[in-house]
Amino acid sequence: MGSEGFQERFVNPYTDFGFKKLFGTELNKELLISFLNALLPEREQIMDVTYLNTEHLSDQPVERRAVFDVYCTNEKGERFLVEMQRGEQQFFKDRSLYYATFPIREQASRGNDWDYRLKAVYVIGILNFTMDDCADSYYRREVKLMDTRTKDVFFDKLTFVYLEMPKFNKTESELETMFDKWLFVLRNLSRLMERPVALQERVFTRLFEAAE
């Protein structure tokens, strides 16, 4: 039940239950694929995903375990870790870097034949807050390892994408890309009573069916 007696028709993707219902089940994996492809450049589009275990234990028994919201691999063996962070967390960048170590380390093969070649790892944070040191209006931040002198990407297999949702203020009439549409529906889904006219793609038919 929302404020002033408002009854939500659709699940809230900012909740653990709502987010995992929409993106964390085999039944709805086409939603996850569509969302990831909206984030990725055309040359990196994915065809399929396989869900992986979201709970990871540290190598040391005294260290904290990591539990991801959604964790999967695509047909090329690349890893995608997706986190929905509803409440503000001061050290979320540190946390996302810590989380990235797990899909990197688990690629190591036993024995002496492994040549250290890695598959790409993507860490995607959907944030219901703005980063303290990012005061501008840009709501999508893509971070890679960079050569500080040349400003060129030094290593392109580790990518962090931070979506600062409070900065996304486009209205339905302003939606142009699938990326726009996904951010709009993530931010507004729990407040909607009907499917917006702008969201006519088949994947959104599935989303609104799953969200009821």
Question: What are the defining features of this structure?
Answer:
212 residues, alpha/beta, six-stranded mixed beta sheet, 25% helix, 5 helices, globular
Instruction: Provide the spatial order of strands within the biggest beta sheet.
Output: 1-4-5-6-8-7
Share of helix, binned: 25-40%
What is the makeup of the main sheet?
6 strands, mixed
What's the SSE pattern? HHEEEEEHEEEHH
Which oligomeric state applies? single chain
How many independent structural domains?
1
Number of DSSP-assigned strands: 8
- Tally of separate helices: 5
- Terminal Cα separation, in Å? 14 Å
Cα radius of gyration in angstroms: 18 Å
Shape summary = globular
Uncertain residue ranges: none
- What structural category do the secondary elements indicate? alpha/beta
What integer is the average pLDDT? 91
Q: What is the percentage of strand-forming residues?
A: 15-25%
Protein architecture, described:
The chain has 212 residues and is an alpha/beta fold. It has one domain. The protein is 25% helix and 21% strand. It has five helices and eight strands, in the order ααβββββαβββαα. It has helices spanning 16-23, 29-39, 92-105, 178-188, 202-211, and strands spanning 49-51, 55-56, 66-67, 70-74, 79-85, 121-127, 140-146, 153-164. The strands form two sheets. A six-stranded mixed sheet has the order 1-4-5-6-8-7, with helices on both faces. It is globular. The two termini are 14 Å apart. The model has no long low-confidence stretch (mean pLDDT 91).
